[in-house]
């Protein structure tokens, strides 16, 4: 029998909230095995309708097509709820797939959470 990947070692989430803005930091790999907890946390946080949500991907080391799909779903969910969504990413393993698929044109992507918050909530700065 094949071993199940150790999702807990491959991925961790750190969620903070300041002044109604939620930042979900993803650490590790985003793939088919690890994306369900990320999707669940993002969905749960969006459903609470924060002032904004930023998905911090700066410590992601692998970002596959599942990650791209996850971001598109998050954007659609956020838009339906009227919650501004920003993405913080500054490394090639995330930025290249987003650019290659042109998903970066659908999202507000900035190099760090502060810039993402400012982009989606300009009045906050």
TrEMBL record:
Chain ranges passing through the membrane: none
InterPro entries (UniProt xref): Anti-sigma_ant, STAS_dom, STAS_dom_sf
PROSITE patterns, A to Z: STAS
Gene3D superfamilies: STAS domain
GO molecular function annotation: anti-sigma factor antagonist activity
Pfam families in the cross-refs: STAS (PF01740)
Residues in STAS domain copies: 11-120
UniProt record similarity statement: Belongs to the anti-sigma-factor antagonist family.
Descriptive protein name: Anti-sigma factor antagonist
Taxonomic lineage of the native organism: Bacteria, Bacillati, Actinomycetota, Actinomycetes, Pseudonocardiales
